[in-house]
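Obj: model holo form, ligand = zinc ion.
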Amino acid sequence: MREHIRSLLKLQEVDLRIEELKAKEEVIPKQKERLLLQEKKLEQEIEEHEKNYKRLQLAQREKEKEIAYLQEQVKRLDSQLMSVKKNEEYRAMLKEIEDVKKQIGLKEEELINIMYQIDEANLFFLESKKRIEQEIKSLKEQAGEIDKELEEIKREREEWESKRNTIVNTVEPEFIERYERIRKRVKVGPVVVALEPSKDICTGCYMKQLPQVVNEIIGWEKIHTCRHCGRILYYSETLNEDTSFALDKS
Ligand SMILES: [Zn+2]
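Output (holo C-alpha cells):
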C-alpha cells in the first residue's frame, strides 16, 4: 500500500504542478489583452489629436478665406463710395461698409481663437506625443515579455506532462484509474491527502473519519477514501519508513 501511495503522491505532485501552470496559461493571455487595450487607447489618443489638428488647420484656412473675401468687399464698397451722389445712398453704403468691417472683426477674433487652439495642439505634439509613444513602446515590450513567459510556461508544462507519463507507467493501472476518477470529481487541488492522526480527520475536507478506517490507514492495511470528500487518505508519519520488514503488508 505504502508503495502505491508514494507513487500516487509523486504523480499528484506532478499533476498539481501541471494544474498550476495551466492556470497561469489561462491568466497570462488576459494580462496581454489588457496591455493591448491600453496600447490601443493611447494610439487612439494620438489619432484624435491628429484629427483635431487637421480640423483646426482647415478651419484656419477657411476663416482666412472668409476674411479676405470680406476685405475685398470693403475695398469694392470703398471704391463705389466715390461715385455715389445722393446723401442717403452714401450713408447707406457707409453703414454697409461698417457692417462688413464688424463681420471682419468677429471673424478675426474667431481666427485668433483657432490659432490659439493650433498652438495648444502643437504643444501636444511636442510634449505628449513623445511620452505616449514611449508608453506604447513600453507596452509592446511588456507584451513581448508576456509572450516569452507564456512560451516558457508551456514548455515547462509539456516537460512535466512527459514526466507524468513516465510516472504513470510505474503505478498499477487499478490505482491510476481510481486516482483519475477521484481527480475528475475533485477538480482542483490534491486527491491524495494525509490523515491527521491526532484528530482522525481528513486534511482534504477536515471531516472526522471512523476509528476502524483510521486504524486500517495507520496500519497500511488498505487504501481508504474519505467518506465525505472521496479523497484517498494516507498516514504521513510512516509514509517513508522502510517497507521491507515483515509486518508491513504493502
Ligand atoms: Zn475528506
